[in-house]
Amino acid sequence: MRRREFVSAAAAVGAAGVTGCIDGGGGNETDGNETANGGGGEAAVTGTSFDVSSVRGGDVGESASYSFEDGTLRVTGVIVGSDSCKTAELGDARYDGERESVVVEVVTTDSEDAGDVCAQVLTPVRYEAAVEVEYDGEAPPVVVTHDGEEVDASEGTGDSREADTSVEDSEFEVTGTGCGEGVDQAEYSPSQGMSEGDESVGVVEGTLSGPDSCTTGELGYVSYDPVEDAVVANVRSARTEQEVCEDCITEVDYRLEVTFENGVPDSASVSHDGVRLDAVGDGIEDAGFSVVGRENASGDEGSGDAEFDEDEGRILLTGTVIGNNGCATARLAEAVVEDGSLNVDVETVSDGGEVCTDALVAVRYEVTVAFDGEIPNEASVSHDGTGVMSAAYGSQSVSASPEGNGTDG
User: Fold this and answer.
1) What is the number of alpha carbons within 13 Å of residue 38 lying toward its C-beta?
2) For residues 134 and 47, is the Cβ–Cβ distance under 8 A?
3) Which of 103, 258, 351, 403 has the smallest C-beta neighbourhood within 10 Å, fewest atoms?
4) Nearest residue to 186 (alpha-carbon basis) of 276, 287, 280, 286
5) CA–CA dist 406, 409 (Å, integer)
6) What is the pLDDT of residue 360?
């Protein structure tokens, strides 16, 4: 976090105040505007401080909230810069007599360490402003602007916890391996930091299975889902460097510790090799998922294709799901058999990247579903819960739902 020093101007009620931002010892000096507030007294801004920190990946939009605490107005929020070189600063903080409000102006600017080349990606910046306000009677109203545009600032605790929770760091380790029965599971334990300096941590402890003793595990990605208030993680199988592998189903125990800023999620949504745990229903022997490519979306992507292989007892589904930014990837959210039909849902998630291009991304995938007995006669695919394709065994065509574009099989 980058800290801007606190400035206090010796301004009495009815005298001119100094407001602005101090960065490296230099600041912008403006006239303090004092006028009667709604409670019949006078108000003046007498000092400010300002902090900024980056927001890691994800879909984070503009936001602001505020609260008064013992004469200090605290404003927290997220402002979005136009490129990767942007940070934020306090443009001004004053009492506006015409609005009868304290106006806090936050602006984006090039960071001090910005290079000559800046990635053209939207860059959210979290900030916290503390504004010392002298007033009589009730606290005055507050107006917050981002780059000159007024934002809908909500009155509250001022920590923006729910909207601004983000992944700060993660550590992954394999804690043990051994022959087993093919267990795939995970348990999540959140721990909220209760005081300044305490970390908010979520811990996932799980078991991943592989075909032989040369199987190990590694972290694929970890991110935060603000809609579900959940940590999203994918643990994938990998190969050790052993020359001789024992022929037994191997269980790999692991521990993932995720450190968060501004709160800790209540739950976790974990996948192994791209398949969300508990996604596979009864009657399915095995389900595999892989992302085979990611590129900028063109708008001409087809809904997908289906191949029914009766001899091998499996159904192969291929398709393309559209993610809303450059950090989007995909995983298998559900594979169930109902009334003789295989129903599959592929969902988009964030891979936790620190910089996400502001462009739709086409994520190409393959789903392989194996069965003990006869394969289902039909298969349907949805993307993020919306149906996009259906196919029937023995048919020569694949039908697209109204939301998708069909392709001939």
Assistant:
1) 9
2) no
3) 403
4) 276
5) 9
6) 84
Quote the strand ranges of 119-179, DSSP E: 123-134, 142-146, 149-150, 154-155, 166-179
Q: Is the pLDDT of residue 113 over 90?
A: no
| Model pLDDT, residue 245 | 95
Cα 335 → chain centroid: 25
Give the model confidence (pLDDT) of 296-306 as tens digits: 888 777 668 99
Nearest to 322 by CA among 365, 352, 356: 365
Whether the CB-CB separation of 306 and 397 falls below 8 Å is answered with no
State the pLDDT at residue 356.
81
Question: Between these two residues, 409 and 131, which has the higher pLDDT value?
Answer: 131
- What is the C-alpha separation between 329 and 65, in angstroms, rounded? 31
**What pLDDT score was predicted for residue 16?**
32
Residue 379 CA to residue 387 CA, distance in Å, equals 11
Q: What is the pLDDT of residues 165-187, one digit of tens each?
A: 889 999 999 999 999 999 999 99
Helix (H, G, I), strand (E, B) or coil at 299: coil
Are 325 and 359 in contact by the 8 Å Cβ rule? The answer is: yes
Quote the CA–CA distance of 273 and 279 in Å, as a whole number.
12
Pick the closest to residue 313 from 339, 338, 273, 285 (CA basis): 285
For residue 379, give the nearest of 344, 345, 331, 405 by alpha carbon. 344
Quick one: tokens of 214?
Answer: 């040369």
Q: Which two tokens stand for residue 154?
A: 């909500």
CA distance 211 to 338: 29
Side chain identity at residue 363, one-letter code: V
Residue 11: the pLDDT is 30
